[in-house]
Amino acid sequence: MMRAQSDVAPATWRRFLPSWLTAYRREQFFPDLMAGLVVTMMLIPQSMAYAIVAGLPPQYGMYASVLPLIAYALLGSSMTMAVGPVAVTSLLTASALAPLAAPGSGAYIAGAALLALLSGLVLFACGVLRLGFIAKLLSNPVVSGFTSGSSLLILIGQIEPLLGVPTASGSAIVTLISAFENVASLHAPTALVGCGTVALLLLLRLPKSSGLWLKLAPMVVLLATIVIASAGHLHQRFDIAVVGIFPGGLPALHPPAMEYGQIKALMLPACIIALVNFVSSISVAQTLAFKRKQKISADAELRALGAANVASAMSSGFPISGGFARSLVNFAAGAQTPLAGIISAVLMAMVVSSCAGLFRDLPVAVLAATIVVAVAPAIDIAALLRAWRYDRADALALAGTAAGVLVLGVEAGIGIGVALSLISLVWRSSQPHIAVLGRVPFSEHFRNVLRYKTETLPHVLVLRIDENLVFANAQSVDERIRDEVGQRPQVQHVLLVLSSVSQIDATALDMLLELNCDLNQQAIRLHLAEVKGPVLDRLARSTLSEQLSGSVYLSTHQAFQALAGGADDYSI
Amino acid sequence: MMRAQSDVAPATWRRFLPSWLTAYRREQFFPDLMAGLVVTMMLIPQSMAYAIVAGLPPQYGMYASVLPLIAYALLGSSMTMAVGPVAVTSLLTASALAPLAAPGSGAYIAGAALLALLSGLVLFACGVLRLGFIAKLLSNPVVSGFTSGSSLLILIGQIEPLLGVPTASGSAIVTLISAFENVASLHAPTALVGCGTVALLLLLRLPKSSGLWLKLAPMVVLLATIVIASAGHLHQRFDIAVVGIFPGGLPALHPPAMEYGQIKALMLPACIIALVNFVSSISVAQTLAFKRKQKISADAELRALGAANVASAMSSGFPISGGFARSLVNFAAGAQTPLAGIISAVLMAMVVSSCAGLFRDLPVAVLAATIVVAVAPAIDIAALLRAWRYDRADALALAGTAAGVLVLGVEAGIGIGVALSLISLVWRSSQPHIAVLGRVPFSEHFRNVLRYKTETLPHVLVLRIDENLVFANAQSVDERIRDEVGQRPQVQHVLLVLSSVSQIDATALDMLLELNCDLNQQAIRLHLAEVKGPVLDRLARSTLSEQLSGSVYLSTHQAFQALAGGADDYSI
């Protein structure tokens, strides 16, 4: 396991502490402190910006960046993942709540917390039930298509705060069209601040060598614009929208208001958020863990992300997730243990409770600019081209998911993606590889007759099945075997070599039973060879073991010799 | 191909005729005529009974048993399948229309025809797009659970007509509870006729040797009860519900009324009916075809079933499908070509247009008894026990689907079934088999080190991946490889033997790219061996071919020799 083991037997109460904490070493503290500090500097602007994406007042992003970080630190298996508000789950939150309440209203805020609670409980339950494999429902092209599509959707959503162009809400296309129609009512001062900030942030990225500390640029820009906006009275003079005054202090802890109708309406979105959350977080956690030869437990991650979302719900927050960019920064800044996350949480709590007034004059357009610069790189056109060159089916899944997100919305998009992934899996599984085998002369080896010079017997058909036998391919295997038999009128024995088969599901078993029976009616016997131990154990519990017209042989060679009988008429 | 080829070049117009017709031989006619007659005798009571299951007046079952049979005969690839109203699609029809109109009303009848049209168009489109593989979305246990669940649902639905106990509509449980509550209001004469007919039909099944002609028992019982009911004036005297007078003659051909709202509401049910229809029909067609060494084309079947359903819609019918029992009887009666189906259609048309008055005094309870006896054997408890013994996951899929049908309804049940099938496929695919290989001493053969005495090199890790690399298992494969590397600090080369891999999808490619990169950072090189031709062609189009830190070898032996270098320190 990846966590250091302490040499002394832990006292009872210590068992409930994470092992990284009980084994904490003094020299880990300074790197953790620095990483916690750097991540907080990144988290302040991003948490406010993603709260806006979620349709919430900016301070709710900071509320969601305290307790969840602590919950994750105590339960997670990753040493370096940084959790908090992220772009895609914020977009999903906005999409789920849009039909239920007006953005920013009390009902909306309560709904966001309920959504965090529900998706947290779903994640936690999946962790307890060890359903970590569910992350595999999404293929990379689908995740890529989803990320690109939702990033574009987020960008389109920033047109209004960034440029001051009023836009209609609805699908991406509706918003875009309304933006074009209303382009004349662009609010020049807002657009100037917005575009200026985008340009500044991009300029600050240019020097390549500068590395980690440049990640602080958004925070520096944020502070600079606060100073400029405040000194220049931009809000009063040019009517530029600002964050405004929000109550200082941390929100009181309380569970979100729950009502049956609300829960029913939010359950499906909560499951979708949980899925997207887990899929994206686990890949970040695994990438980072391998670099330090640490290990991730998918089920522990599910529980930790679940608890973090429940914690977000308790502190009036909204769904949060593992962030890719912030985790990379945390890792690069030298974070040793999840203490870095706890330090971020403490710093964040201090900012919320004592510096709330600081953000009064922050132009909303600056936050929009932060979002644009953070999210734009996630639109990955190259991935589509790469997939198109490599695998058309995958490219279609990518494009279909992205188009679904843009045209039908994020939730329908992810649904289309899952469906496309699964259909491609069924389609791939339904094309099994089967080889007709012959014996390599003067040997005990059997090879594909199409690729090697081999000897075969006219009355024995030897087929090697190169795939697990499951419902998706049972029918194709069946058809192929009957085909091969049909082409050889002399065949009296069919020998299936199952060396590559480690599973035979109930559908495939039915297929074998029926095949055995039908072949038997044509006086053809069915034999098996090289059946793996666990497969054989299972078959022994089925009726196939009694009904099989032929025998089960240990090796193909043994079977071939037995079935050859006295015949010497090998056809080479 | 399975159809006989005529020796003369066909005239242009003959190309549009099915090949069985242009090559028809005189000696095929008598068996076709007899089979057509026997099937018609079975079809008359069943078509009326299944119309009742679908919530329609009985004559609509007969309307749906004329044109669809002709359409299927002209387009289908099966020589012996008998199509017409069947139990499960009728139940699905009732379930789809229940929220939209009152059973038997004009709107309901129009809705049923629209449902047939839509599901027919869906089937036809799938056939044109060659989507035959979609049938593989359902595993046998799911089909079995669905069939058992819907059969039980149909039985529960017959409580009212069979016993005259008024029941509430709704889920199976609601109906059952209301039946228990209302058991006191049982209508004794109806129950007597109903149970008497069930007993009679079961008695007539007892003699085992009597064979095919006993399939006519329902028709004989039907005629007998008509005579008794008519002579005894059962309807007038005992208030027993009878079929009553319906207009003689065939319905006028016209497309069903179409309205956007209706189409939208029925589209999903139509797709579900199409799926269930195709899955059950194709398995019947294949079973029968193999017995006579004929062949079925899944895409032709889709088109033929689609056309048959459109034909049903044009003649005021409802969704129809390939029937299991009737097809078996058709086959056993000696049907040689689809002409048997055309003969059935003609006979049915004659019955509808000239003998409509005959069914006036037929008690509805007799039709309910026909349904009970036909449907009860489809409740297959043994399948559950068999699946439970053989494979727990499959048993759960079966039970979950059946429970879904009974508790949530047929449509939700099939949805649960598809989801369970796919999740089990992902789960099975996510557990790939990987073997660490060593060299069999003094040979060029490589085998699993756990099963054979082999030699290995401490700095070379040879892994054989026994599964296609797809998104569902990419992560597990990745974890396993990193695990094996982690356990061997001396490893400098990882050799992946891809002899069993015939697909690497984009997700798995990403995994390999990242693995290659991460291993390279630890000064470990990644090599491939025995890559299949098509896989290699594809990899050449990806960036892996440039980025791979190691080499691609033709054989494992070649790779092993190259990587061994001068070292002779094999550890055995």
Provide an overview of this structure.
2 copies of one chain form a homodimer. Chain A has 572 residues and is mainly alpha-helical. Chain A has helices spanning 19-22, 29-53, 59-63, 67-75, 87-97, 106-128, 140-157, 159-163, 172-181, 188-205, 217-232, 234-238, 260-291, 298-314, 324-332, 339-354, 364-375, 381-390, 392-408, 410-429, 471-486, 506-521, 533-540, 544-547, 556-564, and strands at 83-84, 321-322, 434-439, 446-448, 460-465, 493-497, 525-529, 552-553. In chain A, the strands form 2 sheets. In chain A, strands 4-3-5-6-7-8 form a 6-stranded mixed beta sheet. The first copy, chain A, has a two-stranded antiparallel sheet with strand order 1-2. Chain A is elongated, with a radius of gyration of 30 Å. At the A-B interface, helix 13, helix 18, helix 19, helix 20 and helix 21 of A face helix 13, helix 18, helix 19, helix 20 and helix 21 of B.
Write a brief caption for the model.
By secondary structure, chain A is mostly helical. Chain A contains 25 helices and eight strands. Chain A has helices spanning 19-22, 29-53, 59-63, 67-75, 87-97, 106-128, 140-157, 159-163, 172-181, 188-205, 217-232, 234-238, 260-291, 298-314, 324-332, 339-354, 364-375, 381-390, 392-408, 410-429, 471-486, 506-521, 533-540, 544-547, 556-564; strands at residues 83-84, 321-322, 434-439, 446-448, 460-465, 493-497, 525-529, 552-553.
Which two protein chains have the largest interface (Cβ within 8 Å of the partner's Cβ), and how many residues from each?
A: A-B, 57 and 58 residues
Number of discrete helical segments of chain A: 25
Sheet with the most strands: spatial strand order of chain A: 4-3-5-6-7-8
**Domains counted in the coordinates of chain A: how many?**
2
**How large, in whole angstroms, is the Cα Rg of chain A?**
30 Å
Tell how many strands the DSSP assignment of chain A holds.
8
